[in-house]
Design a protein that fits this description.
Helix content: under 10%
Radius of gyration: 13 Å
Low-confidence stretches: none
Structural class: mainly beta
Strand content: over 45%
Order of helices and strands: EEEEEEEEEEE
Number of strands: 11
Mean pLDDT: 97
């Protein structure tokens, strides 16, 4: 059974940092492109960052460029999102997604990030 389990969310003050983790179970992790998405109340889910299966290629939405860093450890079946200089508008539920050509895609259940003073 495939599971993606996010962790690391919480309440942080503006300007603070958090590192999110997404642990994958039951799938050949090193063959999947991994992404982080987020969804704020009343808004659509949006892409935050993606990383290729080898980790050699990363991409970011404009909202996180220069502040967020996506990385992965294929030995630990885990993808990370380091978030620095957090802003109130970063408040959302953050989800990870696993996808590869010709296979089903998978979502985690999300972790809440709240940026507030």
């Amino acid at each position: 059974q495939v599971r993606l389990v996010e962790s690391g969310g919480g309440l942080v003050q503006p300007g603070g940092s958090l590192r999110l983790s997404c642990a994958a179970f039951g799938l050949p992790f090193s063959t999947y492109t991994m992404s982080w998405y987020r969804q704020a109340p009343g808004k659509e889910r949006e892409l935050v960052a993606s990383i290729s299966n080898t980790g050699g290629t990363t991409s970011y939405a404009d909202s996180g460029k220069g502040r967020f860093t996506i990385s992965r450890d294929n030995a630990k079946n885990t993808v990370y999102l380091q978030m620095n200089s957090l802003k109130p508008e970063d408040t959302a539920v953050y989800y990870c997604k696993a996808i590869r050509p010709g296979a089903a895609l998978y979502w985690g259940l999300g972790t809440q990030v709240t940026v507030s003073s």
